[in-house]
Amino acid sequence: MLLVIDVGNTNFVLGVYNGDKLIKCWRMATGSKRTADETGIFIHSLFDASEVQASSVDAVIISTVVPDIMYSLTHGIRKYFGIEPMIVGAGMKTGIVIKRDNPKEVGSDRIVNLVAVNELYGGPAVVIDYGTADTFDVLNENSEFVTGLIAPGISICAEALYQRAAQLPKIEIKKPKSIIVKNTVGSLQAGIVYGHIGQTVYIIEELKRQLNMPNMKVIATGGLARVIDPDHTIFDVLDPVLTLKGLKILYEKNC
Predict the structure, then answer these.
(1) Which residue, 38, 107, 153, 247, shows the most beta carbons closer than 10 Å to its own?
(2) Considering the entire predicted model, what is its pTM?
(3) Angle between the 154-164 and 184-210 helix axes, to the nearest 10 degrees?
(4) Residues 6+ apart with CB under 8 A from 36
């Protein structure tokens, strides 16, 4: 079995593949202060609390945008699973061409998503990942990563308002039933969520127009993607485990 690990700035997600089937998935908070023992024991305990045997894992692949966590994570995997993990990085076979001034600047999570979209859905497509940051990355019909945008994520915007405005409360991030609201919490929810919906729709329209890709597919992933399109009118595909699928594909291309 294959253990795939995607380390983000806020959370990291783990999945276990048995052949082509994702049989287990966990999400935990990213913590850079954990030791290798704490990390390895914790991940091992996830298996202990499930029906999946840790001893059945024979390969691990990791993608991370948080370098500070890599020492504890890789050493924890080595010590408690006895496996040398594959790390997503430069020089890997991806099946895509990165048309950027400096390809090494592109986060590994974005590469993993593009690999998944290329293999599973094909281009032209834009993959939108709603996480700590919102990323919009475009793959053309020739499997080339042609452009990408980065915007502040929904949670960051909500947290910034709470921290910088003394009288504004923390809120649950959800879409109000109407943009017409009559209280502070509703005002924050409407402003943040409808603002991000408008941002999403405008960026998609401009990418299609400026790249002359009117039939570009829109693939969304990330923890807050459902908040943006609960009525399924914006995205062609909502794939919450797109990154895990991309990690599996990358492992198979490079093992």
Answers:
(1) 247
(2) 0.90
(3) 140
(4) 71, 72, 73, 75, 76, 79
* Nearest alpha carbon to residue 63 among 127, 130, 133, 7: 7
Phi and psi at 138, nearest 5°, equal -110, 130
Strands (E) in the chain, as ranges, are 2-7, 11-18, 21-29, 59-64, 86-87, 97-98, 125-130, 133-139, 144-152, 217-221, 237-238
What is the spatial distance between Cα 74 and Cα 81, in angstroms, rounded to a whole number? 10
How high is the mean pLDDT of the chain?
90
Structural domains of the chain sorted by starting position, each given as residue range(s) with its CATH number in brackets: 2-87 (3.30.420.40), 97-241 (3.30.420.40)
Give the pair of three-digit tokens for residue 86: 């594959």
109 catalytic per annotation: yes
User: How far apart are the C-alpha atoms of 170 and 237, rounded to whole Å?
Assistant: 31
6, 58, 68, 109: the active-site residue: 109
12 alpha-carbon distance from chain centroid: 9
- Contacts (Cβ under 8 Å, ≥6 apart) of 190: 176, 178, 179, 181
pLDDT, residue 24, reads: 92
